[in-house]
Write a structure and sequence with these properties.
Layout (H helix, E strand, L loop, with lengths): L1 H13 L17 E3 L1 H5 L3 H9 L4 E6 L5 E5 L1 H13 L12 E6 L10 H19 L3 E8 L4 H14 L12 H8 L7 H19 L6 E4 H6 L2 H11 L3 E4 L2 E4 L10 E4 L7 H15 L2 E7 L6 H10 L7 E7 L2 E5 L2 E2 L12 H8 L1 H8 L8 E4 H5 L6 H19 L19 H8 L1 H11 L3 H20 L8 H21 L9
Parallel strand pairs: 4-5, 4-10, 5-6, 10-11, 12-14
Antiparallel strand pairs: 1-3, 2-3, 7-8, 8-9, 12-13
Helix pairs in contact: 4-17, 4-20, 5-14, 6-7, 6-8, 10-11, 11-12, 13-14, 16-19, 16-20, 18-19, 19-20
């Protein structure tokens, strides 16, 4: 964890926050470089002397105005490998922290989950796993929007199919609606019955995708329990509302939103935003840190929700992160597949899972940052070659397992002390493994689980390059190098687990 210790030392000396450590450019010595002295406007020699006090630092060198290059000590790097081997599951992790509530997917119960929902699920669940590793008490929650016009249209669509009538123009279509309609009684609340059946489908799909929830909450319950009314009443008492055009508005423009927002429409019906305020007020009572994983089409809701958070004083005590993810372009050949739920012309997440499997689906969902569009190549995801990134990474894990099997030893036979005496040939790969705790911190700070797929691909490449050029079995340093390979295996397995992908021992 040398990077974290060095970063903390630099922040302590410079009073800067979130400083960055980089790799020195070609032609310069050192393992790490920082321009923190320049950014803080302090004498770089002062910072260099402070860094030299760390056990992890062998020496520092001032390079140019304000830049410091840092060379790590060999013993410190060896200690990193020993730490990995001593407790691989704990390496890079944290101690017990506060409660974090993740709300993710929360798709309206009007149709099957499509590939876009899968991206939100992969991002949210992977982030939740990272938070758990860092010591947070995580709750995964599904919010069911089971009220309003959409649910009424769902019921009408089912009823029309059951009666052999034409589905309303803005209703829901597709084979899934026909299947639902055929399995429901024609009497009773069709909207509720159909919604519940679709919701069960959602949870089954997500379970197959490796995502399971701690809790489920319903918008209708908030309305029934008068929690929406209670929040609106508190807004009135705080002077945060106004009446205009027969509707009740929240003065969100007073809190950096670009306009005021309707809470109660002129027909007396609550808006979705009013329910969201009640829901987030409820969440703020249950967790210290809220993380919402939303599709990019919810961008317009961010500032109004933050305005509510500020107006109730939650922003001073609680942390609210809203992670937006862009859509997925799923292609078959050169044709883009339509995903219109009401038209019924879409590829479901179930179909993608059937075709490429959970591991490939989850890995591919995280190959770009959430704010970048993602093109999902179905053919590449199925390919069993080094061109397929998830196959390439999993193969590196399986290859190490194969090396140990051929040698006739188990991983339990390798002890932390076996890493003593690693040579210069191992320095780069050791540094890369030791970067893992720092990377997890970045994933946490930036809400960026895609950094793990980048790291895994580089890990696999670094390992294959090392093993193809350095003799392991039968070398004078066989014991040390087998210990290093075990450390590589453990880091790859742990990182794959954090994104919900398996680490096979045979391929």
């Amino acid at each position: 964890m040398y990077e974290i210790k060095i970063k903390e030392k630099i922040e302590q000396i410079t009073s800067l926050e979130d400083i960055k450590l980089t790799t020195p450019p070609p032609g310069f010595s050192g393992d790490l470089s920082s321009n923190a002295a320049l950014a803080a406007g302090i004498n770089p020699r002062k910072l260099a002397e402070a860094l030299n006090e760390l056990d992890e630092v062998e020496k520092t060198e001032i390079a140019g105005p304000g830049f410091i290059n840092i060379t790590l000590g060999k013993e410190a790097l060896e200690e990193e490998i020993k730490e990995i081997l001593s407790s691989p599951a704990l390496y890079g992790g944290g101690t017990k922290k506060g409660k974090v509530l993740f709300e993710m997917v929360s798709s309206n119960p009007t149709g099957p989950l499509h590939i876009g929902h899968g991206r939100g699920a992969a991002i949210g669940d992977s982030l939740a796993r990272i938070f758990e590793k860092l010591g947070y008490d995580v709750c995964r929650e599904y919010y069911v929007n089971d009220t309003g016009n959409q649910m009424q249209l769902l019921g009408e669509s089912v009823k029309c199919i059951q009666q052999g009538q034409e589905v309303p123009e803005d209703g829901y279509r597709g084979d899934y609606i026909k299947e639902i309609a055929s399995g429901l009684r024609s009497s009773g609340d069709l909207s509720k019955a159909a919604g519940e059946k679709i919701l069960r489908m959602h949870f089954e799909t997500l379970k197959n995708f490796g995502v399971e929830y701690s809790s489920t909450v319903y918008e209708s319950d908030f309305i029934r329990a008068k929690k929406v009314e209670d929040v609106i009443e508190k807004m009135k008492n705080k002077g945060l509302t106004l009446e205009k055009d027969g509707a009740l508005w929240f003065k969100s423009s007073q809190f950096n939103d670009d306009a005021d927002r309707v809470l109660v429409k002129n027909d007396g019906e609550f808006t979705y935003f009013a329910s969201d305020c009640a829901y987030h007020s409820d969440k703020a009572q249950r967790a210290d840190h809220l993380v919402n994983i939303w599709g990019a089409d919810h961008h317009g809701y961010i500032e109004r929700l933050r305005a509510f958070f500020k107006s109730f004083g939650y922003a001073e005590k609680k942390r609210l992160d809203i992670v937006l993810y862009q859509l997925v372009d799923l292609k078959r050949g050169n044709e883009k597949v339509s995903m219109s739920t009401r038209a019924g012309q879409f590829v479901t997440l179930d179909e993608v899972l059937d075709e490429v499997g959970k591991d490939a689906a989850r890995f591919f969902m995280l190959m770009r940052s959430s704010d970048s569009p993602l093109e999902f190549d179905l053919e590449l995801a199925k390919e069993e070659s080094s061109k397929n990134p998830v196959y390439y990474v999993q193969y590196s894990h399986a290859r190490i397992c194969s090396i140990f099997r051929k040698k006739g030893i188990s991983f339990e036979d390798v002890k932390p002390s076996d890493a003593q005496g690693l040579g210069d040939e191992e320095r780069e790969i050791v540094k890369f493994l030791a970067h893992y705790p720092f990377l997890l911190q970045k994933c946490f700070q930036l809400d960026a689980p895609h950094l793990l797929t980048d790291y895994l691909r580089q890990s696999a490449s670094t390992f294959h390059k090392y093993y193809d050029t350095v003799k392991v079995i039968g070398s004078e340093k066989e014991r040390q190098r087998l210990a290093l390979l075990k450390a590589v295996k453990e880091i790859i397995k742990d990182a794959l687990g954090l994104i919900g992908v398996s680490a096979p021992e045979r391929m």
